[in-house]
Write a structure and sequence with these properties.
Elements: E1 5-18, E2 27-40, E3 44-48, H1 55-62, E4 70-75, E5 78-79, H2 85-91, E6 95-98, H3 102-105, H4 112-122, H5 128-141, H6 158-170, E7 176-180, H7 188-205, E8 208-212, H8 216-222, E9 225-230, E10 233-239, H9 240-245, H10 250-257, E11 307-309, E12 315-317
Parallel strand pairs: 3-8, 3-9, 6-7, 7-8
Antiparallel strand pairs: 1-2, 1-4, 4-5, 9-10, 10-12, 11-12
The structure holds adenosine-5'-diphosphate and magnesium ion.
Length: 322
């Protein structure tokens, strides 16, 4: 599992500045605040956490859809956080995104033929007939057919549209795919079909996934490792089985306590968190989780906990383990 690293994210920060009008101070949203992790070739690395914790911003910044405020993004050994737009465009072939809502990522005015052959044309792939051939091939791989080529996105069901979104992402044979809640908008009955498609493509094309989801049941099924985010920071990273069997961070424990048990003999006590998720404009000092933490100690109010080892390939940012 721990093969070569494909992606290394180092101390990544993404702050948004919000203008509030004249004479008012600008607000700074610390959407991603000093995040580091490594994604290995061929694995599925999940980013989980409550809504607003910075998962999407992390995913988009990795692909340079947003420019990082600071930090490094190393892809296949190359530092990419400072690459120019045109250099990035060439590299984008290797790093693709699948979005939650394929409707937003598929141009409604274009046919599937146009949507799928466009990236091939932009990246100078093959002749027009070869492009169509490749489009048909990828359509068949994702479970659609040649006769779908001349239809428009609105003529498909949600699940089919996500298959097209996935086809568009894989048609250039990328190495890395960031999938941001790819099944969250789909009916439960369709979700597992799309998950199985992602797993099949991963085997077939040796893909590496960063899989963003708030659905821990799905994450447990699909991912090799999990990183838990809270308020713009990664608080724990471990192998999927390890984190479900033995979560360390009080936030992870609470988050996982809400997931239905996978086995009947798996006992879980539901931990209810009190209080709201604080704002990333004004995060609490010390450990950002301390106001909601059932194990809060004095030090947690003032000092941010460093990331420490809590087992084999298991790290946690919590003073309980320091
Ligand atoms: P998640 O995907 O985990 O739900 P996001 O990455 O979308 O979280 O958002 C993280 C935080 O950054 C949220 O507080 C969100 O409101 C804020 N945010 C996201 N995008 C922007 C933006 N373009 N401008 C200002 N704030 C943003
Ligand atoms: Mg999101």
């Amino acid at each position: 599992m721990y093969s070569e690293p494909l992606l290394e994210v180092k101390q990544l920060k993404k702050y948004y500045t919000i203008d509030q009008g004249w004479f008012k101070p600008r607000k700074v949203v610390k959407a991603v605040d000093d995040v580091s992790f490594t994604v290995y070739k061929g694995e599925t690395f999940a980013l989980v956490g409550e809504s607003g914790c910075g998962k999407s911003t992390t995913g988009r910044t990795i692909l340079r859809l947003h420019d990082p405020t600071s930090g490094q993004i190393v892809f296949a050994g190359r530092e990419i956080s400072g690459l120019s737009y045109s250099e990035m465009r060439r590299l984008r072939r290797k790093m693709q995104m699948v979005f939650q809502d394929p409707y937003a990522s598929l141009n409604p005015k274009k046919t599937i033929r146009q949507i799928l052959t466009e990236p091939l044309r932009v990246h100078g792939v093959a002749s027009p007939t070869e492009r169509v051939k490749q489009a048909v091939r990828i359509l068949e791989i994702v479970g659609l057919s040649e006769y779908h080529l001349d239809r428009y996105p609105h003529e498909f069901s949600g699940g089919q549209r996500q298959r097209i979104g996935i086809a568009k992402a894989v048609i250039l044979h990328p190495e890395l795919i960031v999938a941001d809640e790819p099944v969250s908008a789909l009916d439960v009955s369709i979700q597992s079909q799309v998950i199985n498609l992602l797993l099949k493509l991963q085997r077939e094309f040796s893909l590496t996934y960063v899989f963003i989801s708030h659905d821990l049941g799905v994450v447990r099924h699909i991912s090799d490792r999990v990183a838990v985010m809270y308020l713009g920071k990664v608080v724990e990273v471990a192998a999927t089985e390890e984190i479900f069997a033995s979560p360390k961070h009080p936030y992870t424990k609470a988050l996982l306590s809400a997931v239905p048990a996978a086995h009947p003999d798996e006992k879980r006590e539901r931990i209810l968190l009190t209080g709201d998720v604080p704002s990333p404009v004004n995060p609490p000092p010390g450990c950002a989780f301390h106001p909601r933490c059932p194990s809060c100690m004095e030090i947690c109010r003032t000092a941010a906990p460093p990331m420490v080892n809590a087992g084999e390939h298991h790290v946690v940012a919590c003073h309980l383990y320091n």
